[in-house]
């Protein structure tokens, strides 16, 4: 059933990881399986057998050709450097080549205590596993680069967090699990050769275009820094355009491939508030919505530091090159963000005043406590005239009323396009359905407390088509009723 493994990480020298077999669980049950993804990865699903799959996706049996390991990495957590984090509960089975010829990591998360567990239990509760499953797959459907969810298995065991919860294992698929923190682990040990090995692996896997640059002269590694910065800029711009708050943008959760990774206390905001923070552990608001672009830049600066010895033999000159590259992130991010927001407003051309136009709408949304997702979705109903459904989203709508004529004038300057085309274009980027926190919580509660996966399945279906109106599923498009508003999310790892 498993496609053939082509081991890459396991072939690196031993100091990059520790060989580690998943710790078996007592009673694995397959709760979710992502068939289309499995097919894309080259799984043979003829005669698919759930109980065998449960054995594999729990780690109870290791597929042929896999050499499970826990990766070493470090990381800045909330600004503080920890030189040794590593996979405390995740196990990389190995890499496979998918149907498009791309290398993909297959990893089990919640697979037991590894040498990196640092006193924690190595397990994952069902809630966070289902959350990551739903949100990562939704992000994929929304066109955001992300790790994917292949399977979720319950373990038949309890894990103890604030309260006892059912245990689970998530099978995660990633372009790679190379993180800024992976580079930091070796840089902190002055292991320049290891940093070079990682950089070469990252270039080969994620930025093969750089292979044509002259190696050794530093140009190739500066290219890597620029390329990673470009992907992070594009990624965070997409998050911002969806109201997504990652919640734990530590350097160990910052992917070199530019994917969204490690869904912990993440959430989509409802009423627009740029200072919004959900995570209960983020007391200072470090990872608030509006800080995300600048935290990504901060993480890139940490990445740049690890590459310094590769950029130039002269330290001063290496620092100058890295600094320039990190500075260039700012205009790059601004351009990505503006492109995302222009598309959300149905604009194709670029005009000088566009930034102000976007900001004026956001201000009106903030003043009116308007739902982020639905405001943009219903904007397409107001291309010609004021739409009551749009105004209904605003507690105070003066700002909106003043803004709409400005926007319509701007739309007119786009040229003579039929209104219908603008609407279609806007509805292709402004989702109707996002993983709303209260819906995710409901699905988790039903599964964890009543072993009822019905709401999870429904949510999965709804989120598979986030842009298309689904009759009978109106409830899933709406913000939480006041009694169910989620203001805090918990890491719950
Ligand atoms: P995260 O918050 O998931 O990004 O994890 C941060 C670090 O804590 C990583 O090194 C994880 O492997 C480790 N970690 C998180 N949860 C657990 C757990 N339940 N058992 C062992 N290690 C964990
Ligand atoms: Mg992490």
Q: How would you sum up this structure, described in words?
A:
The protein has 493 residues and is α+β, with helices and mostly antiparallel strands. Among the domains are: 169 residues, no CATH class; 157 residues, no CATH class. Helix content is 42%, strand content 13%. It has 15 helices and twelve strands. Strands 2, 6, 7, 8, 9 and 10 form a six-stranded antiparallel sheet that branches. β6 and β7 form a beta hairpin. α3 runs parallel beside α15. The mean pLDDT is 96. Bound molecules: adenosine monophosphate and magnesium ion (MG).
What does the average pLDDT come to?
A: 96
Task: Report the end-to-end length measured between terminal Cα atoms.
Answer: 30 Å
Main beta-sheet strand count, sense and barrel state: 6 strands, antiparallel
Number of helices: 15
Number of E strands:
12
Helical content stands at 40-55%
Bound molecules: adenosine monophosphate, magnesium ion
Supply Rg.
23 Å
């Amino acid at each position: 059933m498993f496609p053939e493994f082509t081991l890459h990480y396991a072939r690196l020298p031993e100091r990059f990881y520790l060989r580690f077999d998943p710790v078996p669980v007592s009673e694995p049950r397959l709760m979710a399986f992502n068939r289309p993804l499995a097919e894309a990865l080259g799984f043979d699903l003829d005669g698919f057998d759930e109980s065998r799959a449960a054995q594999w996706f729990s780690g109870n049996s290791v597929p042929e050709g896999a050499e499970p390991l826990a990766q070493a990495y470090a990381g800045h957590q909330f600004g503080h450097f920890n030189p040794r984090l590593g996979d405390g509960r995740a196990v990389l089975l190995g890499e496979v080549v998918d149907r498009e010829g791309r290398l993909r990591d297959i990893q089990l998360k919640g697979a037991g205590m590894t040498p990196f567990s640092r006193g924690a239990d190595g397990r994952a509760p069902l809630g966070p596993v289902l959350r990551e499953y739903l949100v990562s797959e939704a992000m994929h459907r929304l066109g955001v680069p992300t790790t994917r969810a292949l399977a979720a298995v319950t373990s038949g065991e309890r894990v103890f967090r604030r309260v006892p919860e059912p245990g689970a294992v998530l099978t995660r698929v990633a372009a790679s699990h190379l993180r800024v923190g992976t580079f930091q682990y070796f840089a902190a040990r002055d292991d320049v050769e290891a940093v070079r090995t990682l950089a070469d692996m990252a270039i080969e896997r994620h930025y093969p275009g750089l292979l044509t640059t002259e190696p050794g002269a530093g140009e190739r590694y500066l290219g890597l820094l620029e390329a990673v910065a470009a992907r992070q800029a594009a990624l965070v711009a997409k998050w911002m355009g969806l109201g997504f708050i990652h919640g734990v943008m530590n350097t160990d959760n910052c992917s070199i491939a530019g994917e969204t990774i490690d869904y912990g206390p993440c959430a989509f905001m409802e009423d627009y508030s740029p200072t919004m923070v959900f995570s209960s552990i983020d007391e200072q608001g470090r990872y608030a919505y509006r800080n995300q672009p600048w935290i990504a830049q901060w993480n890139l600066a940490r990445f740049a530091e690890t590459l310094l010895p590769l950029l130039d033999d002269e330290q001063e000159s290496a620092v100058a090159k890295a600094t320039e590259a990190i500075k260039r992130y700012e205009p790059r991010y601004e351009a990505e963000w503006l492109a995302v927001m222009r598309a959300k407003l149905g604009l194709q051309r670029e005009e000088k005043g566009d930034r102000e136009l976007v900001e004026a709408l956001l201000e009106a949304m903030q003043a009116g406590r308007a739902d982020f997702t639905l405001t943009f979705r219903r904007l397409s109903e107001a291309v010609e005239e004021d739409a009551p459904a749009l105004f209904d989203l605003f507690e105070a709508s003066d700002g909106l009323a003043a803004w709409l004529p400005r926007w319509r004038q701007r739309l007119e300057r786009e040229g003579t396009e039929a209104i219908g085309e603008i609407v279609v274009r806007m509805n292709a980027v402004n989702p109707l359905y996002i993983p709303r926190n209260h819906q995710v919580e409901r699905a988790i509660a039903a599964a964890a407390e009543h072993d009822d996966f019905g709401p999870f399945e429904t949510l999965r279906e709804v989120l598979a088509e986030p842009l298309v109106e689904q009759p009978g599923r109106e409830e899933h498009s709406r913000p939480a009723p006041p009694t169910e508003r989620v203001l805090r999310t918990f890491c719950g790892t």
